[in-house]
Amino acid sequence: MTETAPEFLTVGAGDAARRIAVRVREGGGPPVVWLGGFRSDMTATKATALDAWAAETGRKLIRFDYAAHGASGGTFTDCTISSWLEDAQAVLVAYATEAPILVGSSMGGWIACLAARDRAACGQTTAGLVLIAPALDFTEELIWNRLSEAARAMLIRDGVLRKPSDYAPEPDPITRALIDDGRRHCMLGGPVDPACPVHILQGMRDTDVPYTHALKILDRLPAEGTVLTLIADGDHRLSRPQDIARLVTAVAEVA
Predict the structure, then answer these.
(1) Can you give the pTM of this predicted structure?
(2) Of the candidates 82, 66, 64, 63, which has an alpha carbon nearest to the alpha carbon of residue 18?
(3) Is 59 in a helix, a strand, or coil?
(4) What order do you get walking across the sheet with 7-11 strand by strand?
(5) Which residues, 6 or more positions from 204, have their beta carbon under 8 angstroms from its beta carbon?
């Protein structure tokens, strides 16, 4: 399988402009669009496995890195849910010429739901969502609500909190702007209707996005067209061969 070379798309204007790295594998059927997680990138295991599936089946696959992720430009502490959503929407406009299947992992699940909702509001259709441990509202539900009073005070005072990460040697810089902006996009206070079929894959040993969070999302989604697959021994990554097989099957079923 030959790796596709990245292209670059400029998103934003003036001081907010950034170069977003995109890889497109041409093919048929509804385009499959990968939306990665917080501080992940399009070379991660699940993204590359989907690319291998697309190559084998002749499907179109679009991968990209949000600003300040992977091969894209930008400064991480300048980014928010709004800016990463804008990155995703710009990629969809530029590369998804028909109704896409959005595959969102962790934070990418939130971005995918926001993008699908916005598309529906504009009269555009989405073929379906496949969400892996979707972290809707994670800035509030899974970061802010888990912080101690001392950590919250430090974040408010300093504007940034460096939170140890299980996935990288350096801590995650959590900014006050990220938390404040996240509140503008919270979805779980009411019904969530992306106007398309949804399949959630969720590990029950996930300590980052607990399976109870997926159950909360399930309660907000329309019953019709929604499927939840709970993997009893699955963690947050869901990158084992059997997890990848479930992911590929879920994506293929939407198509």
Answers:
(1) 0.96
(2) 66
(3) strand
(4) 7-11, 18-25, 59-64, 28-35, 101-105, 128-132, 198-203, 226-231
(5) 211, 230, 231, 232, 233, 234
**Residues 154/161, Cβ–Cβ less than 8 Å:** yes
- Inter-CA distances, 196 with 24, 85, 138, 226, Å: 23, 19, 22, 9
State the DSSP H helix or E strand holding residue 107, giving kind and residue range, or none if neither: helix 107-121
Q: How many residues does the chain have?
A: 255
3-state secondary structure of 217: helix
Local confidence pLDDT in tens for the 255 residues of the chain: 456 679 999 999 998 999 999 999 999 999 999 999 999 999 999 999 999 999 999 999 999 999 999 999 999 999 999 999 999 999 999 999 999 999 999 999 999 999 999 999 999 999 999 999 999 999 999 999 999 999 999 999 999 999 888 877 889 999 999 999 999 999 999 999 999 999 999 999 999 999 999 999 999 999 999 999 999 999 999 999 999 999 999 999 997
Angle of CA points 187, 193, 127, to nearest 5°? 125
b/e sequence 215-226, b meaning 16+ C-beta within 10 Å:
eebbebbeeeeb
CB 250 within 8 A of CB 199: yes
